[in-house]
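Issue: copy button drops trailing tokens. Both records pasted manually instead:
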Amino acid sequence: MHENILTANQPMIEIKEERDLMERCAGGDREAFASLYTGHLSSLIRYIFLFTRSRELSEEIVQDVFVKIWEKKEGLLYVQSFQPYIFKTAKNLLLDHLRREQTENRYRNLTGPFSEESTDQTDSEIIYGQYFQLAQDAINQLPEKRKQIFELKTKEELSLDEIAEKLSISKSVVKKQLYAATNFVKDYLRKHGEMTTDMVIIMYFLSGIQ
């Protein structure tokens, strides 16, 4: 990724033109897809870079975002606005990355000194694992019903309506419980962890589930 990609400003695509491009892309038009790609590339990279602070990782995630967009291009017919859609896709891919980091850290912790690769573990990987463990500690302290609602939302990615139906409670109760759970976890992270970029990433994801 070139140095100026993080600061370059690209002309915004007008709403009417963007809708036309999405419809054409949904039909398999590669030129329309390329226009969407170039029109949103720099803003998406800047957005991702805010959380990763890594140009290499940001570039990798951007490519994954647009691969997913193309693979599910038919769904663009139902997308209201392209930028929020790709930002949400990027957010999910970032979360997947953090989950992979957590899994790898757990494996390294188990293998410990018996693994030669353990000596290559970076500080950032350790931090990711620590903050996810902090978040899990906080979740485990939630009242049982609140914890169940929180995990149905964050792990199973159910909608508020789906959670309400599954637990036979009202949607308003689900919202109140999620709000309380999310605030508790975020407060716990603030109190027990140093506020770093990695912490900001996790808290950003938590803020998106309310």
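Record 2 (pasted manually too):
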Amino acid sequence: MNTERRISLEPGFVLHRKPYRDTSLLLEVFTGRYGRVGLVAKGARRPRSALKGLLQPFQPLLLSWTGRGELRTLTGAEPAERPLFPAGPALAGGFYLNEVLLRLVERHDPQPDLYPVYARTVSALTRGSDMEWTLRLFERDLLQCLGYGLLLGDEAEGGGPVQSGGRYWYHLERGPVPDQGGGGIPVRGETLLALASGLPPPDPQGRAEAKLLMRNALRLYLGDKPLASRALFRQFAGSKRPQPSGE
């Protein structure tokens, strides 16, 4: 159990907020040194509160809090830099990131490697980067940071490097196995190498294969409960929009 009593100016993001009592907020925030932290922001909903418009998702913050146990008390917050505001379908992508972190990251479990991945991904969504591939790389790095990383550049059980022109069946507990008649998730070698390198696949089939692989990998840990962020993607029906793998 994390026993720090006073934390000052810790970089973080609000993942989720909801009203608490008459004038306060319950927050779930994400930081690198302390992982996910539950905070009570007392009086943050009062009309004249300086925190009222600040404690929003995608705003890089410097957070201070006190207490111990599952729920701590926010004592201060200030902007660390300008807000990051994903727009359109990218906003749904941002809420998808937040929901996945809420589901998979335990409270008070430090995440020094995952925190910069999250910050970088939100920034990329805000800039209008290739949203579909940005989400795939976040999912790849998320699994790696949580200790569930996928074997992408090598064949399972010491079979040698993945071949770009090869065809594989991906077994989530083992890795890619050369095509020998079925079993697992079908994927081409060039798709695995694209995920390993971070460079997007050259064709729609590769993107579809990457999405299918990540969807199945995340399902092992997310379970079968649907993601609420899925509804946001439906609001953009008719527009070209990628959907998260963890649906």
